[in-house]
Design brief:
- This protein has one domain.
- The protein starts with a helix and ends in a 10-residue tail after the last helix.
- The protein has 197 residues and is mostly helical.
- The relative contact order is 0.13.
- The protein has 10 helices and no strands.
- 73% of the residues lie in helices and 0% in strands.
- It is globular and about 45 Å long.
């Protein structure tokens, strides 16, 4: 139990490292927490800094999810521990202790967690994201839709119950974190992919 709690804490701290803020500082771009949509995530970095900065942010956020869970599973960790560590890394991204608990919305980090849990569910989820993004051109809508679909993919594929429960927690947190985007989508003011702030 002590080891499990320690691993969850380490995953949370790893998730708390804000790729968006670090990338923007390194490239001397505006702080994503005070520019654009005010969200320290890859989509906002794309708007304020362009594709290279967004790609670096996306990669950093993705690795925050995939690495902790992969290490746990690689060393024989149980599905329960892998699920707990994945959720902890994801929550670290949403509420980073190093950045005043003002984090991103978790799509890339959540996808990283999902890849470590199940590569087949990951592929199905990315497919949903791409379809929704191509049809509607809204990153927020694609992210929310794909995370709801991810729970269904895990269930259909017969993945362990703790991972399905973990994905439901991640999906619920994602919807909660996107409340502003949901309001913008409903009133027609949500910015589309590639649209600069």
């Amino acid at each position: 139990m002590v080891i499990a709690v320690l691993l969850m804490l380490l995953a949370y701290l790893f998730g708390s490292v804000s790729s968006a803020v670090l990338v923007c500082r390194a490239l001397r771009l505006p702080d994503p927490r005070t520019s654009g949509s005010l969200n320290p995530g890859a989509t906002n970095v794309l708007r304020i800094g362009g594709r290279p900065a967004a790609a670096m942010t996306l990669a950093g956020d993705f690795l925050k999810g995939v690495l902790p869970v992969s290490l746990v599973l690689g060393f024989g960790g149980t599905p329960v521990l892998a699920a707990a560590v994945g959720v902890a890394a994801f929550l670290g991204h949403l509420f980073p202790v190093f950045f005043g608990f003002r984090g991103g919305k978790g799509i890339a980090t959540g996808l990283g967690v999902l890849l470590a849990w199940s590569w087949t569910a990951f592929l199905g989820t990315v497919g949903v994201w791409l379809l929704v993004a191509l049809v509607f051109r809204y990153s927020s809508l694609a992210g929310m839709s794909s995370f709801v679909a991810a729970s269904i993919w895990l269930l259909v594929l017969g993945e362990p119950l703790p991972m399905i429960a973990g994905m439901l927690i991640i999906a619920a947190a994602t919807l909660w974190r996107h409340q502003g985007n949901i309001r913008n989508l409903l009133d027609g003011t949500e910015k589309k992919l590639g649209e600069r702030s």
